[in-house]
Amino acid sequence: VEEHSLDRDCTTLSRHILQQLHSFNAEAQDLSAIMNRIALAAKIISRRLSRAGLMEGALGFTGNINVQGESVKKMDIYANDVFISVFKQSGLVCRLASEEMEKPYYIPENCPIGRYTLIYDPIDGSSNIDINLNIGSIFSIRKQEGDDIDGDARDLLQNGHKQIAAGYILYGPSTMLVYSIGTGVHSFTLDPSLGEFILSNENIKVPTHGPIYSVNEGNFWQWEDSIRDYIRYVHRHEGYTARYSGALVGDFHRILHQGGVFIYPGTVKKPEGKLRLLYESAPLAFLMEQAGGRASNGNMELMDVVPDALHARTPLIIGSKEDVALVESFIQDRA
Ligand code: AHM
Ligand code: MG
Description:
alpha+beta; eight-stranded mixed β-sheet; globular; binds 2,5-anhydro-1,6-di-O-phosphono-D-mannitol; binds magnesium ion; calvin cycle
């Protein structure tokens, strides 16, 4: 027993990444170093969140409106800055693009050596921050293509297959980090006493069908008929249960383990839905496919969607294969 628990404590995120890489070329080393920095960001954000309710001025709004037209919270900015800080002087990441920044942020001392771009949503589920409910961070890593001399980062406007790694951090009762570098999906739990992420589940596979449907039904009046048809179907059949937390990362995490589908369709007010392709939908699509599930925008595979702007939005249907296909069949029926 003693030996077993020691082995467990030693299966840290950094060791795991090296095991997954199977090689020691330059890219493998870069990727492992990048993931270690992300893990540090996760620890710093997690530390602040666990005390935010006790700290003067950690919670609440900044009074500013971001590029999305949403009110910015202090934790959004804090978390955004943490990701920038951990990559300073790393020589790894030259550009960072996030929900909270209109344009990519360049770390001059890392350019042009840093050939990678980190695209992230520093706090996903911002409405949960001030009430101490689960929130997350989402990240995606892409290789910079071309020189980006104009600083317009046009090479980021490509499909989800360009991601070389993706993952999220879930700040819940414990802090978890879930990642994929294209070799399955693996989850880690932060042991605060060790300050390390320790392996929880390797090669997570999503069930092909599950009971969860996760959607903001308050938008029912704003949906197209096809989505209403699907929800009516669910209401009339046994075996479904609704779960919607207001934080995509949490809802996704549940579906990853229990199966089912998360849907954020287009609405009257937001025809492309709410979620952003590059730092919300595409990274989670990468993970869901790696776990044996699917992601779609209703008409095509989500991984094939090419954004026309850094902050482009897309409808999202993601989860178990059969459940995603069922939603799509209602869309096809109305097409
Ligand atoms: P955020 O990154 O600004 O918090 O927005 C994304 C969040 C998702 O986590 C969540 O699924 C969705 O927005 C909830 O939106 P709504 O309140 O419209 O249902
Ligand atoms: Mg956000």
